[in-house]
Write a structure and sequence with these properties.
The chain is 70% helix and 2% strand. The protein has 331 residues and is mainly alpha-helical. It has a two-stranded antiparallel ribbon with strand order 1-2. A hairpin with a 5-residue loop joins β1 and β2. α2 packs antiparallel against α14 and α11 packs antiparallel against α14. The two termini are 51 Å apart. This is Carbohydrate ABC transporter permease. Belongs to the binding-protein-dependent transport system permease family. Pfam families: BPD_transp_1 (PF00528). It is found in: Cell membrane. It is a multi-pass membrane protein.
Length: 331
């Protein structure tokens, strides 16, 4: 018995190479097998390095390195044509930012654009997807026409809607006047009250087709038995979609919402083409303000600080989605 105890203690103090484990077939195996597995994994990692390491280094340098450098610049007071002074770093630009009424207005507009545009585009896309899912005639034609604006760039969309919103010859006001609704014809881009709403409507027109496709794929992946079971239970059409179908579209809603929010944060070129670098406080967003401060006013440090805020907002949009994907084991 003492001999057996000493043998067990010796095994525990050893390097593990001779540690025995019970196999499922009743035999034993030693820890050397695990060591061989680790060596195999290490070999695979070393063999794959030439394929992914150069790309990873380039991404790290030009993406995350640039972000880090941008953050460093935001801690300086760099402006004008000189060089940044890295000897005295502070959060002064962020303090100025919190007292800047233009920054607060741009932040508010960015959040409004982010939330309202995303919500309206999702709802409209869902309704259109439900309509198309009923097996309407010319479904493919309708789907193609509705998706077509999504293939356009922000520049083309901005020019098109600049013409549509024209006060005297724009398509919207001309149509309203033809219908006898002159009182609804407005100066959509000139009046600060309607400027942001006009931007949201144009972006919704461009992206609701994308939501249609995402939701249509989700609807057609739901088994017919779920529809039939709801009908057998006496659920009305509205109740069936609200209580049975829409909850099963949670993944489609999440992925579409993330894409829409990212595009909302990238709406700089749309607003720049439509209004230039100064769209006014009612339609200014952080991306346009960042460009204006950095490249028009040459306030490089302040522009960098605004860019860091934009980066934090993008992380706030993407991080929860990545975490949910990780929890589902899809990463």
């Amino acid at each position: 018995m003492i001999r057996d105890t000493l043998r067990r203690l010796r095994r525990r103090r050893g390097d593990g190479s001779t540690e025995e484990a019970v196999r499922t077939d009743g035999g034993t195996e030693t820890g050397r097998r695990f060591s061989i597995g680790s060596d195999s994994i290490d070999n695979e990692l070393l063999e794959s390095l030439p394929f992914w390491l150069p790309a990873a280094l380039l991404v790290g340098l030009f993406v995350y390195g640039a972000i880090g450098w941008n953050f460093l610049i935001s801690l300086t007071d760099w402006s004008g044509l000189g060089q940044p002074d890295y000897s005295s770093l502070s959060l002064e630009m962020y303090r100025i930012m919190l007292e800047d009424a233009n920054f607060i207005a741009a932040t508010r507009n960015t959040f409004v654009l982010l939330i309202v545009f995303t919500a309206v585009a999702l709802v409209l896309g869902l309704l259109m997807a439900i309509l198309v899912d009923q097996g309407i005639r010319f479904e493919n034609t309708f789907r193609t026409i509705y998706l077509l604006p999504f293939s356009l760039s922000f520049v083309v969309t901005a020019i098109f809607w600049s013409w549509m919103y024209n006060v005297s010859s724009g398509g919207i006001n001309v149509t309203l006047q033809a219908l006898g609704l002159d009182f609804l014809a407005m100066n959509w881009l000139g009046d600060p009250r309607f400027r942001l709403a006009a931007i949201i409507f144009a972006l919704m027109w461009q992206f609701s087709g994308y939501c249609l496709i995402v939701y249509l794929a989700g609807l057609r992946s739901i088994p017919d038995e779920h529809y039939e079971a709801a009908k057998v239970d006496g659920a009305s059409t509205v109740r069936m979609y609200w209580r049975v179908i829409v909850p099963q579209l949670r993944a489609a809603t999440m992925s579409a919402a993330v894409v829409l929010m990212v595009f909302a944060l990238k709406a700089f070129d749309f607003i720049y083409v439509m209004f230039g670098t100064n769209p006014g406080r009612s339609a200014d967003i952080l991306a346009v303000m960042m460009y204006r401060q950095a490249f028009s006013a040459t306030n490089w440090a302040y522009g960098s600080a605004i860019a860091i805020v934009l980066f934090a907002m993008a992380l706030g949009v993407i991080a929860p989605y990545i975490y949910m994907q990780y929890r589902r084991g899809e990463l």
